[in-house]
Structure formats: C-alpha cells, structure tokens
Amino acid sequence: MEQTTSRVIKALLLLLICLVSCQDDKDDFSKEGRFMILPVFHQNGVEISTRALIDATYQEFQPEDGELIYAWAHCYDNNNSNENNAVKSGEFRRSNSKWYSSVEVEGKSKYKMFAFNPGGISSSRGTFGTTDGNYTLSVSPINTLTVGDPTISIAAARSYWDYDLTTEDKYTYSTPVPGNFDLGTISTDMHKDKVYLAMNHLYAKASLKFKMNATYAEIRTIVITGIKIRTSRGQSSMNVTFSGQPEPAWTTPTASVLELEVPIVGDSVILTTNLQDAPVATFCYLPVAGTSLPIELEVEYNVYHSNATFDPADDQGQWLIRKEQHARNAKIMPSAAPTAGTDYPINITVNPTYLYQLSDDDAGLELIID
C-alpha cells in the first residue's frame, strides 16, 4: 500500500514538473534569442474627429477585446534591407483586457515596425513588401463600409525600461515621429519589449442623429429598433506606401452589394422633435465621393400611440399600432469626397407619409436628410 502511494506521489510530481516546464517553454521568450513585441497604441481622436498626429499630440487608444492588428517587423541588419525574407509577420490581439502578440524578433538586431488595423474592411493581412528602402502594403479586396475603425501606422517607437529605486519601474519612450518606424537594436536585457505605434484613420465617419416631424409627434410615437446601410459598390482595393503620413491609393469601388447592420446605442431609441445630443449610430466609409459610393440607409421602427408618459417597455400591446415598419433613403452621403479621419454628422427627420391610414405600410418612404 505504501509503495503504491509512493509511486502515485512520484507520478504526480513528475506530471507537475512537466506542466511547469511546458508553461515556461511557452512563456519564456528569451529562449533562442526570441523577443515578444507588445503594442501600446496612441491615436488622436479615436472617435475619428481628427486624424492622428494632426497637431503632433497623441490620445491613447482604448481598444475593446477582439481588436486585431496585423504587424510586420523588418530586420535591416547585415545589408538585407531589401529582402522580404527578413520580415517577421505577426498579429497583435486584444483579449481579456490585455494585448497578446505573435510578433517575434531577435535580440541584438535592428528592426522597423509597421502595422495595419483592418477594422472590419478585410479579413486578409494583405501583401507587405520592401524594395530599395520603400515599404508597401497592398490589400484586396476591402469593404467600402464598416462599423469598425480601420487604421494604418505612420510611426513607431520602442519603449525603454526606466529603473529608478526612488519611484516605480516604468517604461519610457521617445515620441514617435511621422515616417520613422525604426525601433533600433532590440535589447536582450528584457524578455519583452513594448512598441508605441501612432496610427492614422483610413476611413471617414458618419454619425447619425434622428428627430421626428413635429405634427406627427402630436399623435404618434416612433421608436427606432434597427439601422442598416447598403451599397451597390461594396469592394475596393488599397495600396499604401509608408511615409511621413501615408495616403492610400484606392481602386474604384466595384459593383458588388454590401449590407451592414449598424449597432444602435441602447439597442433602440425613442424619437422626439429634437435631435439627440449624441449620435444614435455610427459607421465608417471609404473616403470617396458620394457619387462613387452610393449608400442607402434603411431604418426599422415601431409606431405607438403618443402619450406623455409613454415607455415602449410597458404594455406594448396597449400602445403599439404598427411593428417593424421600414423607411429607406439612398441619398445620405455628401457628394464631394470626404476626408479620412473626419466625422460627418447626418441629421435625419422621420416624416411618415400617413396619419390615419393605419393599415398600410410605409413602403418606399424616404427620410428627410438635413
């Protein structure tokens, strides 16, 4: 009995040692001269009110879990700056409120870092290349509409560990300069190095606000429950040459249908005769002229008897008149080409065409765009 117990204990100890060893092998990036690059993002106007670096200042990017950024680290030691096989590709992923990296570089070597956050416009990392010191990225196809926020890096800087006994240990970094992606020589003193990236917005943004016709509001209440955007020119391609502030070259959007559901703040919104203080919904779109990118808006809504104390969560059977009505409008975008990184407000008045014909739908109804 004692021998059996002893063997079991030894087996458990061996298993524990194996598990610890395997975990160490997985997490210790100092093995074989490998180092993990961890991203810290800075971006001016994460809500796309301005472009990154427009006034040489940064605002910290607060990403959500699920964020994905494709990255490339180019080793330019040993006169191999033009060799694509010197490029290490990987990803930065956000999960459990932490960044995880698959970008591995070698210590004591010099690197440049480039990044692309697809923000829903592509599931492909694209083709990255370097020729005669010029770094390019081509992605095809890409979606012309997205509820994400696609960005491209315009600068990178590696952090440095600042050890001070009088304060706390901390990372410091040089301010990223547009067009400078040089991380210098990767240290071997730390198992991890952080990289600070400055990112530029690739798309323009549309912010939707709604109000209801004042006459109609006296007898009916409308609650918006769904928003869709649709285009008949749904795909394009992007080519970027990384430089001071890269301006992508876009191909003409092709004839292909793309439809997206746009999340509504709070899942639904009760309309009043005044515009909301904050946008009800937002989406991003390729910065080309509205004539080149026709976008149709579709709103789904419910109609209720008007009442000063109305709450759609209370007894919808009593107040509900019509459910899942649809209004469409195909003229919501500016005719001139918008600027990437700019937020364009779109103010919409819901003005139903009926008052008392309660048995007919609003098929083909257009909304009034201010």
Structure write-up:
The chain is mainly beta and 370 residues long. The protein folds into 2 domains: 29-201, Immunoglobulin-like, CATH 2.60.40; 204-236 and 253-369, Immunoglobulin-like. It is 9% helix and 43% strand. It contains 3 helices and 24 strands. A hairpin with a 2-residue loop joins strand 7 and strand 8. The protein is elongated, with a radius of gyration of 27 Å. The model is unreliable at 1-5, 7-33, 43-56 and 355-360 (pLDDT under 50).
SSE map:
Elements: H1 2-27, E1 34-42, E2 68-75, E3 87-95, E4 98-101, E5 104-106, E6 110-117, E7 127-131, E8 134-143, E9 145-146, E10 151-162, E11 170-173, E12 182-185, E13 192-201, E14 204-212, H2 214-217, E15 220-231, E16 235-241, E17 249-250, E18 258-261, E19 269-270, E20 281-285, E21 295-305, H3 316-319, E22 320-329, E23 343-350, E24 368-369
Parallel strand pairs: 1-13, 14-23
Antiparallel strand pairs: 1-5, 2-3, 2-6, 3-4, 6-10, 6-12, 7-8, 8-16, 9-20, 10-11, 10-13, 14-20, 15-18, 15-19, 15-21, 16-17, 21-22, 23-24
Q: What string, H for helix and E for strand, traces the elements in order? A: HEEEEEEEEEEEEEEHEEEEEEEHEEE
By secondary-structure content and strand pairing, the structural class works out as mainly beta
Mean pLDDT: 75
CATH class of the largest domain: Mainly Beta
Unreliable segments of 5+ consecutive residues: 1-5, 7-33, 43-56, 355-360
Beta-strand content bin: 35-45%
Specify the CATH architecture of the largest domain.
Sandwich
Q: Tell me the radius of gyration.
A: 27 Å
- What is the count of helical runs? 3
- Envelope shape: elongated
Query: Could you give the count of β-strands?
Result: 24
Biggest beta sheet attributes: 10 strands, mixed
CATH topology of the largest domain: Immunoglobulin-like
How many structural domains in the coordinates? 2
